[in-house]
């Protein structure tokens, strides 16, 4: 079938290149891409799903069902539309022209100064924030239907206050020396779950660095490829329960009897 030929061509190009990551940036949104406009459904990790969508000219993004447990391989649906309908049980990545990566979080940016507010598309909000050096991120109230047009608030502070009715995007800080972390085989089960998202280990460290409540984070296993995006769970408690199927990274400056 045609889809298998495309997969074969993609895998050939994937193994012929380095593990530098996808050339196209993507914007995460909670929700799904509308029915129809289907380009295929395949099992991929997030990084390879991005690379596959890169190779498909008509691919505008991909969508997959949320998982209760950390996982690497997902059943990913590729689409030729970028219209997202909000649904907390689905996750979607759509192509963006922005060169600036953003963290997604549930909540609002309540601190700092509001520097602009307007109704616009998420893609336009990213573009506006990209061009404004004072902009640290933006927030919008979740919509029950299509998330095309939202009332966006732009703020000069990146601190997010959790609220399930809001979504926020904050600029990922430029690379710098991370807070020291110690690797542990096991998972962080105690304490409050601060955030959950798909990201690389490096970006997970960056997120935890700037969040004072974050003691560390857990992924489903130790992954040798640093560019791979994994499901990451951030926790407020550094206590690790041993489990060879999980990997955890705990801040060295957090005191705990491990």
Please tell me what the overall shape is.
globular
Q: Can you write the helix and strand succession as a string?
A: HEEEHEEEEEEEHEEEEEEHEEE
Q: Within the largest sheet, what's the order of strands?
A: 1-7-4-5-3
The whole-number mean of residue pLDDT values reads 81
Task: Set out the fold topology.
Blueprint: H1 2-15, E1 25-30, E2 32-33, E3 38-44, H2 46-55, E4 61-65, E5 74-79, E6 84-85, E7 90-96, E8 102-106, E9 108-109, E10 114-121, H3 122-131, E11 137-141, E12 149-155, E13 160-161, E14 166-171, E15 181-188, E16 193-199, H4 201-210, E17 216-219, E18 230-235, E19 240-251
Antiparallel strand pairs: 1-7, 2-6, 3-5, 4-5, 4-7, 8-14, 9-13, 10-12, 11-12, 11-14, 15-19, 16-18, 17-18, 17-19
List keywords for this structure.
single chain; 5-stranded antiparallel β-sheet; disordered N terminus
Task: Write a structural description.
With 258 residues, the chain is of the alpha+beta class. Helix content is 17%, strand content 41%. It is built from four helices and 19 strands. Residues 1-22 have low confidence and may be disordered.
């Amino acid at each position: 079938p045609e889809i298998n030929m495309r997969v074969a061509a993609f895998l050939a190009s994937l193994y012929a290149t380095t593990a530098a990551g996808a050339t196209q940036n993507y914007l995460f949104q909670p929700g799904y891409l509308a029915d129809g406009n289907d380009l295929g459904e395949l099992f991929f990790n997030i990084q390879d799903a991005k690379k596959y969508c890169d190779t498909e000219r008509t691919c505008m993004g991909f969508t997959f069902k949320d998982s209760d447990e950390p996982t690497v391989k997902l059943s990913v649906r590729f689409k030729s539309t970028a219209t997202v309908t909000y649904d907390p049980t689905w996750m979607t990545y759509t192509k963006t022209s922005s060169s600036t990566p953003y963290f997604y979080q549930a909540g609002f940016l309540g601190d700092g100064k509001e520097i602009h507010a307007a109704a616009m598309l998420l893609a336009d909000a990213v573009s506006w924030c990209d061009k404004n050096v004072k902009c640290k991120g933006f927030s919008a109230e979740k919509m029950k239907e299509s998330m095309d047009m939202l009332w966006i608030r732009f703020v000069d502070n990146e601190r997010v206050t959790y609220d399930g009715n809001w979504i926020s995007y904050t600029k990922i800080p430029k690379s710098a020396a991370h807070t020291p972390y110690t690797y542990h085989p096991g998972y962080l089960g105690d304490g409050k779950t601060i955030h959950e998202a798909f990201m690389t280990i490096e970006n997970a460290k960056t997120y935890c660095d700037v969040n004072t409540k974050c003691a560390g984070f857990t992924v489903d296993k130790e992954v040798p490829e640093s560019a791979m995006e994994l499901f990451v769970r951030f926790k407020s408690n550094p206590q690790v329960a041993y489990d060879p199927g999980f990997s955890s990274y705990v801040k060295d400056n957090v005191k705990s009897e491990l």
